[in-house]
Design goal:
Distance between the termini: 48 Å
Number of strands: 0
Structural class: mainly alpha
Largest sheet: none
CATH class of the domain at 177-322: Mainly Alpha
Shape: flat
Radius of gyration: 22 Å
Strand content: under 5%
Amino acid sequence: MSTETRQALIESATTLFSTKWYGMVSVADICRSANLSNGAFYRHFKNKEEIFCAILDLVVHKIESVLEPLSSMPLHNRFPALIASIYNFSQQYTPLVRVFREGQYRFFKYERALKDVYSHAFSVVFGHDPTVAEYLFAFAGLRFVAIRAALHQIPVSVDSLSNIIKEGLFRAQPVNWAHIFSTSITPLPIELLPDSRALLLTEGRKLFGEKGYFETNIHEVTSKAHLAIGSFYRYFESKEAFYRDVIREVGRDIRHFITLNLGNGLNRLERELRGLWLFILFLSMDRNCYNIVREAEFVLPNEVRDYYDAFHRGYLRHEDASLNCESTTCIEFMLGVAHYLGIEIIFDNSPETARHVIEEIGDLYMNGLIGGNGRDVDTKTDQ
């Protein structure tokens, strides 16, 4: 019975955490949903954080179990099985994936633990431990595409994913690294005399990024902006509407910063690599934007879908014949590389490290994990 009670609490918590932000769920909510007493909860968990971390640990171990059979498969079956396993996990365990997406930055050690699981799977398939760039190329786009398919119903092709990782996205083309990493940066325009609405958005963005949506109240925002509470309601009908505008502003600022600084005369691959570098620079200057978008996945999920869709539309405007793959999957894959590169560099390393990673990603974008190194996991035979 004790094991059944613990499982019932975890299932209840998973359902609640997957549909609400961490801050909105209480121990009482978890017990009520599980039809158990608070006393039953505290016999198994010290507090809400402990059960949340138990779910994150469960996700890591489930993925590890899903990938464990790779090592006993014939070598030529391992690569397609790796792709299918990771993609299908998001479709089969969508609530767990939702919870992990919050947990991966709230409790970052679990993202590192999952990286270890994926890195081991990489070595089983490809015969060596991955570099940072190889890890990102093998798993970042794949994870992001799988999650977008599960959460946002974006139509993607698993076959295209497989081909991208094996053979790359772009046809071979020259890369001028001096242009990619140029530090001549044009900052976003600064409003010298901002109106009341702009002041509110600026202060709200700081508070939401530092404290979170639920811990921030309108009085704090207006106080920081040195405005009366009535000024807020002249521009925004509610806190939720205000948050929606903050999210939209974050997306516009990132896209505008990248557009301002891309430069002229770049080929398609150079544009992509320059865009990655600029994205990392933006995150290093304004980490709050990452926290805002991630929290919004539970507060305003449709707004976050629009946030990513706006980047997708930007890609479509520059689509050309240099891509080797079906456009939707290819674009979502590149969005995923940028997303997880941000996590990898900003939260665990430094922007300077990103230079070396992006250089290697450039090669992988043209050659894939197989085309650039002469190995072909599809044609290997067992030794």
